[in-house]
Design goal:
With 140 residues, the protein is an alpha+beta fold. Helix content is 26%, strand content 23%. The structure holds tetrahydrodeoxyuridine.
């Protein structure tokens, strides 16, 4: 059992690695696997813009590529410009990242923490952020 504030602190740690010279919008994510491991991710931008990868997907793809495919929760922090830790707004995951979450997470139980600081955060289920999702069950 990892406390929310620990996962959020890890997301801030991940945010420090953000490569975002174009938008200057730094995002960090900390993804908690059911194995107890925390996978960090940051957004990684590109001069050609479209190859940009969001922080959340960086964390998911790191985890899946290491064999972990079951998850408890993710903490996300994002702030515009060069603001210091805790000064940003709540950073909601984009639609593509929500769809990636739906591939690997239980929509009712997976928790998504949108944090401004370790104590100021909102928690959502994936179902709340991606209702009526299209998943592998729809392909059966
Ligand atoms: N971004 C993320 O990494 N995650 C989100 O939840 C929203 C957006 C990134 C993509 C891009 O590098 C920058 O934030 C501005 O859109």
């Amino acid at each position: 059992m990892v406390e929310d504030k620990v996962l959020i602190a890890k997301a801030f740690e991940a945010q420090e690695k953000s490569y975002s010279p174009y938008s200057k919008f730094k995002v960090g994510a900390a993804l908690l696997g059911k194995n107890g491991k925390i996978y960090l991710g940051c957004n990684i931008e590109n001069a050609a813009y479209t190859p940009t990868n969001c922080a959340e997907r960086t964390a998911f793809f790191k985890a899946v590529s290491e064999g972990q495919m079951a998850f408890e929760a993710i903490a996300i922090v994002g702030s515009p410009g060069e603001t210091e830790k805790g000064e940003g707004d709540y950073c909601a995951p984009c639609g593509v990242c929500r769809q990636v979450m739906a591939e690997f997470c239980d929509t009712k139980n997976f928790r998504i923490l949108l944090a401004k600081s370790e104590t100021d955060y909102k928690a959502f289920s994936l179902e709340e952020l991606l209702p009526l999702s299209f998943t592998k069950d729809d392909l059966r």
